[in-house]
Amino acid sequence: MNRSTKQKTTRDAILDATDRLLAKNGYKKMTIDDLAEEVGIGKGSVYLHFESKGDIALSHIDRIIERLKSNLSEMASSSAAADVRLRKMIMERIMYRFDSVQHYSQSLNELLATIRPRLLDRRRRYFREEAGIFSRVMADGKKTGVFTLKDPQKAAEAVLDATNALLPYSLSAYELGEREELEKKASNVADLILNGLKKR
Amino acid sequence: MNRSTKQKTTRDAILDATDRLLAKNGYKKMTIDDLAEEVGIGKGSVYLHFESKGDIALSHIDRIIERLKSNLSEMASSSAAADVRLRKMIMERIMYRFDSVQHYSQSLNELLATIRPRLLDRRRRYFREEAGIFSRVMADGKKTGVFTLKDPQKAAEAVLDATNALLPYSLSAYELGEREELEKKASNVADLILNGLKKR
């Protein structure tokens, strides 16, 4: 095992311990000392990998999304028809996140409230990255004549908007954004609901 | 003007003043004294209509939803084809709420955080009531052969789920509920996205 692999392992062990402590005590009560003890390393070793408790919480969520994206990419690359792939990906998008946080759902609001400003920036990035994966399947479906749609990227974004309310980290008032932008999103979701994606 | 009409007018004037003060100072800084002064009545008169500041905030949101429901009902009863009506209703559902709160979007999180537990119960009721209005159009669309769907009520709920992320008061982790229930919702939204509602 080389050094970078070992570092990755300790990092993952800290995030695994975070997951357990969030379930057990919640975010507020979790301390770096507890984390170090749970992993069986010194407090200083934790700080070799993370700057702060907030940094650990964000990395913990980042890891959930990285794993989700990896699952989604794999599904997107399968040889199934585009509509079959898309259905699996939609279900995965919703259920994977639920399964990742449900054991500490009591303390999730507390966690989200604390790291919200930094999380909002990240969520925009998550959304862009997910849209990139979904748009590949949209483009495939368009090419193979399974879907009727104009713009794969726009269709991917509408699918994400139409499923966002079922995610644990959903929109807050703070993110409402511009009216015009919202109206466009709403219009795309309305079209999606009325027409669906499958070719008539 | 009889007594009950006058009472309704004062009540509405207090809620109108609430709207202005939320935009001006935010929820935390708003006092019953400010409200009374803004309406031009005594503090005691405010308490004739409302029990507390939290009660006023909730009634303020109730009023937004009542007005929205009235608009939706009107649209649902129009003579247009079911798909045309549904599209208008989806846009109204999203844009009316945005327009109702955008002038105090800065203080919306603060307001929501304070009244969250009581608001959650209400949101379940709002959702049920909206679903009732939408399901009428679903049933019409089914009867007239414009939509292909099995259960108008279920279809209405899937449409609401698919647009919930675009509302100012969206789901929080606290409301995640049961996995099985979420999976069913996700599956219905996935079908909706893939197949749409319009008859092939």
Structural summary, described in words:
The structure is a homodimer of 200-residue chains. Chain A is mostly helical. Chain A has 2 domains: 1-50, Homeodomain-like (Arc Repressor Mutant, subunit A); 53-195, Tetracycline Repressor, domain 2 (Orthogonal Bundle). Chain A has helices at 3-25, 32-39, 43-49, 53-76, 82-101, 105-143, 152-164, 179-195. Chain A is 76% helix and 0% strand.
Task: Name a few traits of the molecule.
homodimer, 8 helices, Arc Repressor Mutant, subunit A, mainly alpha, Tetracycline Repressor, domain 2, 2 domains, 200 residues, 76% helix, elongated
Q: Determine and state the CATH class of the largest domain in chain A.
A: Mainly Alpha
Mean pLDDT of chain A: 86
Task: Report Rg of chain A.
Answer: 19 Å
The termini of chain A sit apart by 55 Å
Topology-level CATH name of the largest domain in chain A = Tetracycline Repressor, domain 2
- What count of helical segments of chain A does DSSP give? 8
Q: For the largest interface in this structure, which chains are involved and how many residues does each contribute? A: A-B, 48 and 48 residues
The CATH architecture category of the largest domain in chain A equals: Orthogonal Bundle
Strand segment tally of chain A? 0
Gross morphology of chain A:
elongated
Helix/strand structural class of chain A? mainly alpha
> Which percent range describes the beta-strand content of chain A?
under 5%
Oligomeric description of these chains: homodimer
Number of domains of chain A: 2
Residue runs with pLDDT of under 50 for 5 or more positions of chain A: 171-176
CATH superfamily of the largest domain in chain A: Tetracycline Repressor, domain 2
Helical fraction of chain A: over 70%
Order of helices and strands of chain A: HHHHHHHH
* Major sheet description of chain A: none
